[in-house]
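Two records follow; treat each independently.
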Amino acid sequence: MHLFAVLLIAIFVITLLTTLLTDSDLNNIISVKRMQLIQSLVLFVGGPFLLAFLWSDKPVIYLQLKTKSKPSLYVLVAITMIAAIPFINLLTELNRQISLPEALAPIENWMRATELQLEEVTLRMLNVHAVSDLIFNLLLIAVLAGLGEELFFRGILQKIFSEWRNAVLAIWLAAFIFSAIHLQFYGFFPRMLLGAFFGYLLFWSGNLWLPILAHTINNGIAVLFYYLKFNGVQMPDLDIIGTGNTLYLSALSFVVTVFCILKIRKESFVK
């Protein structure tokens, strides 16, 4: 009941602040960034902390933010996120090739239109030239999103689901919702796998900072890449590494990623 109450309050506050501080125009990137900032602070950061205060007299411990892990685990998580890029790109490419039955064509057209619109908005957000704008994007899209979404999806939802069912089902259910809420259907399965990886990081280590780090690195790489790209630095397109002529990189990426994940799992249980 507390969860639904907090969600309703958060939605009301977000709607109010969005109305007062933005024009809700997706063509106005400053307005879009304000909307994302409000959503991240109110729903994804404020909501979990409020719930943790309501449910526990030790909210930081409840959210698993006080658990310590070995420094090597943080390094392994960082390496895993970088190594996984080509394999994730391949999965995204395969996901994009999924077509619905002809009877569902109107739904598929809506999904593709929504996807394109969100991609265009995201690229406009990432198209910055000043260092100050890069820093703001890193804070908003990488740090704040990584912190807030992991607090909400892993710190709250996954914990709630694990109390209802078994832990593994909780991980995948939270990952499913995490991917679905982004409304980017042709990247749904890769994003769900990332969400599941974040969930397993928390399950194995009991330390929410590990999935926060992984999520932040995942978003931060994109922010840095597009900053360099939009400022004239010549480099391969980040989104196609591991596909087409570089398919071999996906195989290498898969092997290294699996090795790192197994290493993380092993190291997480060594105290």
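The next record belongs to a different protein.
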Amino acid sequence: MKTLKLLFAVLPVLLAGSPAGAAGPDWHKYEIQSVSLLRDYLRIDNTNPPGNEAKAADFLVGVLKDAGIPSSRFEFAPGRSIVYARLKGTGEKRPLLLTHHMDTVPADSGAWTVPPFSGELKDGEIWGLGAIDMKTTGILHLMMLKMASESGKPLARDLIFLAVGDEEEDSAGMRWFLKNKSELIADAEFALNEGGTIKVEKGHPDVYQVSTVEKAPLWLELTAEGAASHASEPASDPAVDRLLRALDKITRFPRPVKVIPSVELYFAQLGHPDIKKELLDPAAAAAILGVPYNKAILTNTISITQLKASDKINTHPNRAQAWLDCRLLPGEAPEDLLAGMKKAVSDEKVTFRTVLSESSKESSPDSALFRAIRKVAAEGDPGAIVMPMVLTSSTDSHYLRDLGIAVYGFEPYRLAEGEERSHANDERISAANVNFGLRFLFSVIQEAGK
């Protein structure tokens, strides 16, 4: 496994002759600033609920103002903010949007080694809730505008900074912004958001995972009706039994394999040059689909996650319910899946209600931005594999894809097994990763402007 020190030595070579000027950036200065700003950002409690993104917005707007970069601020709910800024380029190419969310999931402070909002620098690592998900990325995005502004030479693309709230709960911030202010980013060609990172494993090539699509969530509520009675005798029409029969049919509901372009390229880079042909062989297909992630990116998935029936152990309820988390591949119509499940269940006393239904679009794994990531990785990390990946969960990216922006989920952090601590106790990131991410992202932005 290559060291970050070696990569730091290689990446500055990529910047020679770049729009940032012959001398190149003052890396020492910007690395110190990045770590310092991150520690300050992590000290702000944006636990969601309630979010309190206004506190983070105060901080980000202040940093942008100090850098001489105008910004706008919008409130999508009391105490909840969005920050927008645009650094003008030459206009030769369409803008690049850099977006992140300010809120974090809750933390059990008693399970942390240090206070979760300490921003402590300890043993070369910066500790705090949001260090991985995703305040470090927000600081790197901000630094891109600051560094480009201070270079004195405009980039070919405008750089747009967008910090939103509520991604960890309901994406209310991004949904509000696109409903009310979408014209501010509608001209963007590309966007970078959260998603993949760099997977490092001793003895193996580094794998740069760039998410190009995420599956569309379809959340369903099933309700089975029956006759209430005392549980000391068999029920004449038990709602629970009816629900269990319906769920059994749903678990056996056929979900055909579908290979989308990003998944085809993903498997090709893992040594499966013709995954479609392999999947025609029953034995090979069973082995491939036996891996949970593989099955998730090749089929629509249906997960039974919640059950509810009687409040008392000695009562047959007149109603039993279940909730399903379904995830659909791009191009799959939720109404078709729902109609198929209803037909399979075929019980007029079992009803379906859609709780959530969202879209899924795929960004091309062959675009100027994706190629820029691939080139910078190859020149700084020979032998590395850069591959598209499918996120089986959801982020704000799909809302931006609906706007026609090609969105890529990539955060340039080199993480070994156990170091991806999103939503975990003792979340932290190494200062070396912050510095590497700063250099890598700056190189990508330069390359994407050529």
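Discussion point: The domain at 216-357 is CATH 3.30.70.360 (Alpha-Beta Plaits). How would you locate this feature using only the token line?
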